[in-house]
Amino acid sequence: MSGTRARARAVPAVFAASALVLAGCGAEGASDSGEWSPQQPIEITAPADTGGGWDTLARTSSRIMEDAGLVDQSVQVVNKPGGGGAIGWSYIANNAGDPHKLFVTSPPILFVPLAGESDYDHSDFTPISRLATEYMTYLVPADSPMDTFDDLVGELEDDPGAVSVAGGSAPGSMDHVALAGAADAAGVDAGELNYVAFDGGGEATTALLGGHVDAAVSGAGESMELIEAGEVKALAVSAPERVGVLPDVPTLTELGVDFTFDIWRGVMGPPDMSQEEISYYESVFAEMMEQDSWKEESSKLGWTDTYQDSAEFEAFLDEKHTEFVDILDEVGLQ
Amino acid sequence: MDTLTQLVSGFSVALSPENLLFVFVGVLAGTIIGILPGLGPMTAIALMIPIAFGMDPTTAIIMLAGVYYGAVFGGSTSSILLNAPGIAGTVATSFDGYPMARDGRAGKALAVAAIASFVGGTVGVVGLMLIAPTLSKVAVSFGPAEYFGLMVLGLTAVVSLAGKNVTKGLISAVVGVIIALVGIDSATGTLRFTFDRPELYEGIDFLIVALGVFALAEVFVLLSRRGHGGAQGGVTSLRLSKREVRAMTPSALRGSVLGFFTGVLPGAGATVASFLSYSTEKRIASDGDTFGSGNIKGVAAPEAGNNGAAIGSFVPLLTLGVPGSGTTAILLGALLVLGVQPGPMMLEQHPGVFWGVVASMYIGSIVLLILNLPLIPLFAKVLNTPKAVLLPLVVVFCVMGVYGLSFSVFDLWLLIGFGVLGFLMRANSFPAAPLILGLILGGLMERNMRQALQISGGDWSVFVTQPIPAVLLGLAAASLLPTVIGLIRRRRERADREREVPAA
Amino acid sequence: MTEFRFSHRTIAVAIAGFALVYLLGAYHLPDFVAVDVPVQPATLPRGLGYLLLGLAAMLYFQRAEQAEEGTATGETATEQPAEADEVGLGRLRDTRLELAVFLVAACLYVALFAVAGFVLATAAYIASAVWYLGYPRHLVTVLTSVTIPLAAYIGMSEGLGVSLPNGPLPF
């Protein structure tokens, strides 16, 4: 990573030189006119390996932004895997004030710091836009005696430990909180749940298909095909209103359980970005989401577009943070 | 009969000029990326996805699948020539492949690997075609308790991989498991032995360890011998004698079948498959004790195994829509974006895609074989490079591969550390294979054991009351018996001898 | 290699020392109490620590067996006599020093990898290592150390989209 630091040192020199040239031509950097535009290639960091969800989002956005000509500069994707995101976040945090370094993000930016596994949390970065959301589904095997979410709640009330529920992340992280929050809202003791952590949603769903666990929580995108094929039953979805790809699955709120859970995806930047820089990116991402290619891909992935600008996104993050702290408290993990 | 008609229509899809071209492009790119140490099919597919976007979905999948099994195919080359595994699935190939190269039989080793890969791929495709829908039930029948049994069975191979000194072999294996446990414990989210380094939170990548203890350690060993005793160039004949073909055929076939079924299990994958094939073959082969010193069966079995598994992992992917490995997870992501939702309904909704992919795999296997066989003499020529040039280059390739994997200089330090560890192990006759085995299977064993116990509420009887885990654990115990008996007998004989010596 | 061969007792003591440190670490792992888990995160590490300790003890009391030389898996009995040294690599008589030099070179390479960038660090490393190991054709050395890093860099960044550190070089 010190390499990128070295590059960061070298870049201002080049930048300064080109700015000089530009200034000579009278095409001065736009800062005094109240507008800002990038002066060098934009870097979108995926704080994960190539191929994961963050990487997909980063590469999809970069491709659409370039193809549609939304930016004058090229958009490069950089992978900084490690620490469940922590490595990538510290890389961005170390580039405070460089408005050309963005990163893609989702709920782990709230959960990983809460677990004490990252020195930086959402408040250390500049929220730019929330883009899309996917919702959690609560699943049971096709041959399960449980048919409705109420049945599940009933079983859990009888003996919370006797119902094993699989999820694709460690206790205290996404899938567990989506389960605990719903259970808590339904009046079940969330601390007594028998949550079985698997390595990724795919493994959790596989365990459910084989009947090795009684229930599972999984993202709607991952489970929609299995639901449609009748291999699993979806008892509820964590959305505020019914989801297009799963029209027959009731929401938790419909069922009288006051809980929603978003697997949102968004874009953030380094600390200390100026208002001009934020507005520039806000409009770029808003435009990107207007592109047909974005709409097509996001619906194929089971996402719902839920754009928020920087200010809304920031408020949303703070609200979710408080909510998660409460749930983790309830479970006994905080 | 229905299958046959479907297959014929599949071939008509796969044989269109465009699809043929992209099968070729895919397997070629896969082979090249597979040869580079460190970079594996996962990176290869992720990087080809942007190219795939503009294509017809079937063509795109055909190409991406080609990248995947092409990489598995190509990974063996650097395992054999440089002792630097190209991908995780070909680590076991270096156990016998590199000793063969050291004896000046690099050409033969590469030919055996290519043919065994072809056999593995072909057996896999036949399996995929004939029994995929039925197998999806088998795939999910394995839960945590079953995987625990499988991993324990795999771990018992330590005693057969340990060589003469079982104590040293066991120490290696324990160290391997210790390395596997570094990182965030997935069952509880607890940090274990990470020393507050975020770089260690996700654990130590298996390939860093493998490149260190095999490739870098070998560089150190060669230096300490002043460049003598490494892989020999010169003799690059790849022609196999009738006897060799007869020796490798059963191993390759057994490896293919075992590999395919292991690949079908979403929790196992090509790496586990290659180890299982290797250790099974070592146990049942009449000349099993020469494994590790350049036995062609020891190249044929894991190569057939990992290629069979690569195809096998398409069963849960295509029939259930659940990815069995990191690689198939990426493929799944790509398929979704391309508008093909794999899963139980795929055979009905997109039969053209399914059968086109199956048919393209037949073609891809053949393309790989005819692409690779002529290249073998060329690859083997690498070994003619003077050692003074070759050794630094091996270091560079390992460094480049590890960096391309994680983009982290910290991992490069780990690589060097494992190189030193591997050298010290070699110097003191500690075998490296059990360490790798412990590293791969140890972490999986712990995780599955804890998941199984979490589900059962802490009741240990799940491992013996369920049929599959009970059988697997029974097999594990049975496979240890001969070794234990052998050890006791040897000890007794030695004691007898010692008693006789003073008497005489 | 023989310079690095230690007696079973020395190795056993070293392993036991490592096992003790590891056990200490394992006992410092917190128990997970928030959710009821049947197996604690520290359970297996503790078991492994004791197992390693036991194995070290077994090794301590084992006689060195010459027969086991080079027969372990992954090792063939192709030790060659060191006298046939016509193309012997390196410059120092003492193999230990020689290896130390090579190790330091590799460490320098890694240390410079990010700072100087892939191309410069690799070129410097290849050139110096090849020269030091005694390869006589210096022109080939220079050509290799320039073309290989450049080709690898371009191949990785353009062909595969994997960006290697570029250091002070402008591309």
UniProtKB/TrEMBL annotation, chain B:
Family annotation (Pfam families): TctA
**Which keywords are on file for this protein?**
Membrane, Transmembrane, Transmembrane helix
DUF112 domain mapped to chain residues: 20-437
InterPro entries from the xrefs? DUF112_TM
Q: Which residues cross the membrane?
A: 20-39, 110-132, 144-163, 170-191, 203-223, 252-276, 317-340, 352-376, 388-405, 412-441, 468-488
Q: What is this protein called?
A: Tripartite tricarboxylate transporter permease
Organism from which the protein derives = Haloechinothrix aidingensis
TrEMBL record, chain C:
Q: Which UniProt keywords apply?
A: Membrane, Transmembrane, Transmembrane helix
A Pfam family this chain is assigned to: TctB
**DUF1468 domain: from which residue to which, for each copy?**
11-165
- Coiled coil (UniProt feature): none
* Transmembrane stretches, start-end: 12-30, 99-132, 138-156
What InterPro entries does this protein's entry cite? DUF1468
The protein here is known as Tripartite tricarboxylate transporter TctB family protein
The protein's organism comes out as: Haloechinothrix aidingensis
